[in-house]
Amino acid sequence: MDNLPGYAWMKDRAGRYLYVNQSVKSLTPYRDGWLGKTDAEIWPGEGGADFRKNDLQVIATSEKVETVESFILNGEQRYVLVTKVSYLR
Description:
The chain has 89 residues and is α+β, with helices and mostly antiparallel strands. It has one domain (9-84). 27% of the residues lie in helices and 28% in strands. The chain has helices spanning 22-25, 39-42, 46-61, and strands at residues 9-11, 17-20, 65-73, 76-84. A two-stranded antiparallel ribbon has the order 1-2. The mean pLDDT is 91.
């Protein structure tokens, strides 16, 4: 997944990061460490809470979720199309 041009990551059911690809590692919030951290720790506030809400929907239903997630990076609002799936069934 390191060769993908987009962002890719894996988390456990508690929302802790297990893996992020090179594209994610290039984002400022991930440069100070990410392994074992949650979105709330990396993206405090509403962003992290929204990411977790979508994760929990996937966990609860085992169905994929396609959505647009937003975050603020370097003072700029950003949007990313996200497809979340559970690899644990």
